[in-house]
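Design a sequence for this backbone.
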C-alpha cells in the first residue's frame, strides 16, 4: 500500500508567517501615530474620523494629513491586486513580491526627516494596504494582519460558538484570532519602546520582521488539519464523502 502523500499549502497562509506580519502591522501603527504626527498607518477608520473632525472645524491643512494616508492606502490595495494578476506563476510567489516591495518602502521611510512626515505616512499606509490585501487568510480563516476590529469580532464569535457546541474547530479558530490580536499588540509595544532608541529608524524593525515572513514563504507547509485542507485544496474523494454526509 502506497504511503499517503502529505497535503501541502501556501506558507503565506500559515500562522508561522502571520506571526511576523502581525508584529510588523502593530509596529507600523505605533510608529506613525507616536512618531509621525498622530496619523494611523493601518487603522483608516481613525483617519476618516479625524479627517472629518478637522474638515468641520475648517482646519484644511490638518485635514490633509489624514486624507493623504487614505488615498495612499487605496492605491496600495490596487497595487497588491495588480501584483496578484500579473505575477502569478513566476519564480517568486506574488505575495513575496508584495512583501519585498513593502520592505523597500519602509526602509526608505527610516531615512525621512520629520518635515517629510506626510510622505512617510503615505508610504507606510501604502505598504500596509498591500499587506492587508495580499494576506487575508490564516490557516483557512479570514483575518487581517494590520488591524484588529474584524479579528476581535470573529474571535468572540468563535468563542461563543465553542461555548455552545464545544467544537474543536471553533476553539481553534478563536485561538487563532486572539493570537493575532496579541501579536499585533506586542508589535505596537515593541514599536513604542524602540522609538526611544532609534527614532525614525524604528521602522526598520518592521522590515526585519517582514524579511522573516518573506523567507518563510519559500517553504511549503504540510497540512494535516481538516479545516486547512478544506480551504487550501484536497482530494476530490474527500469532497464527495463529506457531501454525502451533509446530504444524510
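Sequence:
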Amino acid at each position: 500500500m502506497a504511503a499517503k502523500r502529505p497535503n501541502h499549502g501556501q506558507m503565506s497562509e500559515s500562522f508561522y508567517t502571520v506571526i511576523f506580519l502581525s508584529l510588523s502591522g502593530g509596529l507600523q501603527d505605533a510608529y506613525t501615530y507616536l512618531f509621525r504626527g498622530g496619523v494611523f498607518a493601518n487603522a483608516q477608520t481613525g483617519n476618516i474620523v479625524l479627517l472629518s473632525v478637522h474638515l468641520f472645524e475648517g482646519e484644511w491643512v490638518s485635514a490633509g494629513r489624514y486624507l493623504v494616508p487614505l488615498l495612499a492606502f487605496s492605491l496600495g490595495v490596487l497595487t497588491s491586486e495588480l501584483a496578484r494578476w500579473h505575477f502569478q506563476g513566476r519564480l517568486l510567489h506574488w505575495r513575496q513580491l508584495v512583501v519585498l516591495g513593502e520592505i523597500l518602502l519602509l526602509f526608505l521611510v527610516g531615512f525621512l526627516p520629520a518635515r517629510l512626515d506626510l510622505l512617510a505616512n503615505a508610504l507606510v499606509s501604502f505598504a500596509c494596504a498591500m499587506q492587508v490585501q495580499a494576506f487575508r487568510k490564516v490557516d483557512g480563516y479570514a483575518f487581517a494582519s494590520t488591524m484588529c476590529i474584524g479579528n476581535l469580532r470573529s474571535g468572540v464569535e468563535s468563542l461563543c460558538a465553542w461555548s455552545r457546541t464545544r467544537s474543536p474547530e471553533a476553539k481553534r479558530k478563536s485561538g487563532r484570532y486572539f493570537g493575532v490580536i496579541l501579536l499585533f499588540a506586542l508589535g505596537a509595544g515593541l514599536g513604542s519602546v524602540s522609538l526611544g532608541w532609534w527614532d525614525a529608524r524604528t521602522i526598520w524593525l518592521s522590515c526585519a520582521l517582514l524579511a522573516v515572513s518573506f523567507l518563510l514563504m519559500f517553504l511549503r507547509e504540510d497540512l494535516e488539519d481538516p479545516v486547512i485542507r478544506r480551504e487550501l485544496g484536497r482530494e476530490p474523494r474527500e469532497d464527495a464523502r463529506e457531501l454525502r454526509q451533509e446530504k444524510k
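Residues 86 and 94 are 8 Å apart (CA to CA).
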